[in-house]
């Protein structure tokens, strides 16, 4: 066994937060396992879902992680990201470049935070306890969870919409489906489709994480085949690709381009900035660091870049065939002449949306809400609560306007979540150098208890980083909820770089507060640095 506790003196051995060597075992490959019985089963800070995954059950391979990312990245919102950028004046090359660069950038914090998963077997809200405190971790966990709930609602609405469009094509002669009564601005059958997709998602998530892994493993290759089939079909029908590929940029590459590029880049980063926080929820099942690093590197940036290019090619073909670009793949598939083709498209769309929504938007809030009250809320209960919240935020309103969707929603979310990522990375990599005491993450009065369970330094860093990241948020006249000169006018120049500003600002403030003589934690709480020579 190897003692992984830092060198600064802590409580005596046997006391809460005592000798780590007696409470956790470190394998030669660096993976750490909690000793049996160290944390009482009735502890108010843990349950079976939040407890570290035993090493014997950390068995996800490179393929599992690559398939996870293919399954999450291949979905309708990903497909339509390029359309949002084109509508802002970019040409297809600029749109694909922006999306590709954003996903390469966001991969780095994802790999850094993901490291704790295979090593310790812990989910995101438990990792956040090391920096925010055992109780204070609820702050970033609830922020991440509420964002995931909103995304869940958006994806569920899109999935139901796809069922509505494609079922209408199959039931072409059934006028009652297409012409059903209007309810709150949408046909009643569209609401029925929304409910059907909602229930399918609940049925899968209630079966647990193993069901999520099986879904991703099967969905990934099927969705790639479906996307390529759509490309072949439209290319054949169009006799080539349409004028969209020849359409010049309205912005050029000069002074008009950069004011759109940087906020759009932050928005594209914001698309997956959620997962840069809670990726330990998945990597905790990893067989080792190699599996999570290679799996994520192969799965995320390559799939997003290829998918963006594919969406442009297919949409360009649709413009040649129908005289207008059709960005929604389900709407395009509904124009097929073959009923079999439409049914296949329906299966692909359902699998794509289902795999993304469950993995990206239900797993996280299930753990995050469970962390709020572990003895009362299990993983499954948290998932059900997330489903309910996701419907109550009216997701159909969030995606009506590309300006609001990309700049207001994605941009603001990216700034706040980047702030949390900066704190996690600074704490885990710069201060602790990847060394954690597992038992104290689950009990009061240990290394991570700080002041009544809260680390005010992390909260202060979050507040400063958050204000810097989103305080200058602004909207063009009549195109968003923010003032034209910014909420805090002198911070407006930072608003276009919200994610990067939030990450860098919080990282710096947190590192200073944790190490400065007058603000560093007292000896006997949690030391900042690991043992020398480790």
Throw out a few tags for this protein.
4 strands; 534 residues; disordered N terminus; two-stranded antiparallel ribbon; Hydantoin permease; 61% helix; globular; two-stranded antiparallel sheet; Pur-cyt_permease; 22 helices; mainly alpha
Structure characterization notes:
It is a multi-pass membrane protein. Residues 1-26 are annotated as: Disordered. This is Nitrate reductase. One of its GO terms (cellular component) is plasma membrane. With 534 residues, the chain is mainly alpha-helical. The chain has a domain at 43-400: Hydantoin permease, CATH 1.10.4160.10. Helix content is 61%, strand content 2%. The chain is built from 22 helices and 4 strands. The chain has helices spanning 62-73, 76-87, 92-114, 116-120, 124-127, 129-132, 138-170, 175-178, 188-205, 209-238, 258-278, 280-283, 289-322, 329-333, 339-361, 363-372, 379-392, 395-398, 402-431, 456-470, 492-495, 498-515, and strands at 24-26, 32-34, 182-183, 186-187. A hairpin with a 5-residue loop joins strand 1 (24-26) and strand 2 (32-34). The two termini are 14 Å apart.
Using only C-alpha atoms, the radius of gyration works out to 24 Å
- Strand content bin: under 5%
Write the CATH homologous superfamily of the domain at 43-400. Answer: Hydantoin permease
What is the SS-derived class? mainly alpha
The whole-number mean of residue pLDDT values reads 82
Would you list the SSEs in sequence order as H and E? EEHHHHHHHHEEHHHHHHHHHHHHHH
User: Which ranges are low-confidence, i.e. pLDDT below 50, for 5 or more consecutive residues?
Assistant: 1-18, 527-534
GO molecular function: nucleobase transmembrane transporter activity
Transmembrane segments: 66-88, 95-114, 120-139, 146-168, 188-206, 218-235, 255-277, 298-322, 342-364, 376-394, 406-431, 452-474, 494-513
Family: Belongs to the purine-cytosine permease (2.A.39) family.
Protein name: Nitrate reductase
